[in-house]
Amino acid sequence: MQVISIENFTKDYGDNKGVFDVSLSIEQGEVYGYLGPNGAGKSTTLRHLMGFSKPDLGNLSISDLDCWKDKTTIKKDVGYLPGEIALPDDMTGMEYLKLIDKLRKTNDLTYAYELIEYFEIDTSVKIKSMSKGMKQKIAIIMAFMHNPQILLLDEPTSGLDPLMQEKFIKLIKSEKQNGKTIILSSHIFEEISKLCDRVGIIRKGRLIKEVVMDDLKHSENKTYKIEFKNEDDFNRIKGLYPDAQFEARKNQALISIVDSEINDFISNLASCDLLFLKEEKHTLEEYFMKFYEGDENV
Ligand SMILES: Nc1ncnc2c1ncn2[C@@H]1O[C@H](COP(=O)(O)OP(=O)(O)OP(=O)(O)O)[C@@H](O)[C@H]1O
Ligand SMILES: [Mg+2]
User: Fold this and answer.
1) Rounded CA separation 281/277 (Å)
2) Contact 196, 184 (CB under 8 A)
3) Cys-Cys crosslink for 201: which of 167, 209, 254, 271, Cβ 3.0 to 4.6 Å?
4) What is the Cα–Cα distance from 113 to 242, expressed in whole angstroms?
5) Using the 8-state DSSP alphabet, how is residue 76 labeled?
6) Which residues contact 5 (CB under 8 A, 6 or more apart)?
7) Are 291 and 203 in contact (CB under 8 A)?
8) Residue 42: CB within 6 Å of ligand 1?
9) What strands lie across the sheet with 222-228, from one edge to the other?
10) Domains of the chain, CATH where assigned
11) CB contact at 8 A, 119 and 140
12) Probe ligand 1: pick from 9, 10, 42, 44, max atoms within 8 Å of CB?
């Protein structure tokens, strides 16, 4: 079941800035990563999903409701974590969370208290004296505490220390298990790779690529570096993998294969006398960086 749908969404701020003709849809229970360089249009898209602004063209809907016309109804079941948080300085964390609970008419702080404990945050201090990470935690709790089915999270771990980032990842995994539908914008590839089912890459306001993470993880080329003890083995393998890189002086080879070729690869090497065999890591980061750097031919 499709929960979030964006069709031909355009918001033109002029001067080639904004979002142009973006279409994507997110299924129930999916975690969708929204990735792209600064100024690409991630926050603009999320703000329009929240109905804060009217699109110039196209339609955005959540659970079949129009994000602009039905924004008040939609908000009840959506948790939004803005990219730039602005909290009232003069309130304590708890006063603020209670106020939000009252405005939402939820009258249930059970989950909020659980999250306060989970993120180890002292909510009795005034927001103005909180650190960036503490404020971020308050904003996270605000987005999650009414237990919404849909979460729109704009760079959720920005300002969190590595331990808290890990805790956040665990929280998202458990929310996903509860069937929540989540869109998450991030610049942290590791976070994206641990959490997302699919990733959309946006650049200069245009959605340039959508990737199924499992496909990417399995289809990824893996490169192995090998050093042979003798020249005969080196030459034999060179004959079998003519496209690989070979360095005769060192009897070394760099051979790239996909997972489905692994058995053949191992049996070809089985009779060789090797000095070492190691995998050269291709990270998802390398894959995504190509899009950041603007290489269109990937
Ligand atoms: N209200 C606005 N008025 C004019 N231009 C805007 C407005 N909001 C966003 N923009 C422009 O639209 C583009 C997309 O901005 P957006 O904030 O969506 O990017 P982003 O992908 O979230 O970037 P970042 O990674 O830096 O958060 C930018 O060029 C930005 O300057
Ligand atoms: Mg942003």
Assistant:
1) 13
2) yes
3) 209
4) 62
5) T
6) 25, 26, 59, 60, 61, 62
7) yes
8) yes
9) 245-247, 252-257, 222-228, 274-280
10) 2-217 (3.40.50.300), 221-281 (3.30.70.80)
11) yes
12) 44
CA of 35 to the centre of ligand 2 (A): 10
Q: Which residue has the tokens 């929540």?
A: 180
Is 17 touching ligand 1 by the criterion CB < 6 Å? yes
- For 125-160, how does the pLDDT look when each residue is reduced to its tens digit (9 = 90+)? 999 999 999 999 999 999 999 999 999 999 999 999
**DSSP, residue by residue, 120-146:** T--TTSBGGGS-HHHHHHHHHHHHHTT
How many Å lie between the centroid of ligand 2 and the Cα of residue 65? 24
Alpha carbon distance 109, 255 (integer Å): 56
Q: pTM here?
A: 0.84
pLDDT tens-digit readout, 262-277: 999 999 999 999 999 9
The DSSP-derived string for 178-217 is TT-EEEEE-S-HHHHHHH-SEEEEEETTEEEEEEEHHHHH
Q: Read off the tokens for 204.
A: 């200069």
Measured CA to CA, the distance from residue 31 to residue 191 in angstroms comes to 12
